Amino acid sequence: MAEIDRLLLDATGSRRPRVVILPTASYPDGEDVFRRWAAMGEAHFRALGAEVEAVMVRDSTDAHDPAHAQAVGEADLVYLSGGRPGHLLRALTGTPVWAAARAANRRGAVLAGCSAGAMVLAGRQLRIRGRLILPFRWEDALQEAPGLAVIPHYDRIPEPFAAVLAFGAPRGVTVLGLDEDTALVGRDGSWQVHGAARVTVWRGRHRERLRAGDALRP
Known about the structure:
With 218 residues, the protein is of the alpha/beta class. The chain has helices at 2-11, 31-47, 66-73, 85-92, 96-106, 116-121, 159-167; strands at residues 18-22, 51-54, 77-80, 110-113, 122-129, 132-140, 145-151, 174-178, 182-187, 190-195, 198-203, 206-211, 215-216. It is built from seven helices and 13 strands. The strands form three sheets. A six-stranded mixed sheet has the order 6-5-7-8-11-12. It is globular.
């Protein structure tokens, strides 16, 4: 993903962008996993020439810490790691850290997410129990991309099963199946596909495939 992440860093307009890694979604899998996500994010973006800080928000209590909120608010790019989307949503909703991330985005900072991080940035997200996919339901997410919902690792899911998930989405929600090594980058209401594979777009029962360079308007 280095090429895509360089694109995101360039979009900040900063010569040496300041990146904040939020490994929050990984915390339910244990402290070691949480710290490993933080370290991977730091190493990845440092290798791309950025100034990087992992802000160690484990839960909603940490997300109310003024020092954490200040660090996030000063970022040029805020990156939400993979892990458990339900935990990430509960940890950030209504907190100073999330308010700071939104404010940073409004002044021009990039918000980016991997897997669970991408799911939570959308308007709606899947709610599942533990590692079981069924039963599932859709719930409100952080609403940075209203009207959209993300199914990550789409190329790992049998498509008949993915279709069941998409068909269950609320009316008017566009479901985006993101293959691995692939990203959808949005600006000013338009989205463009980047990366090695595809984005599958579900609008109700209508399916469309997009590849690198293709644009999407929800």
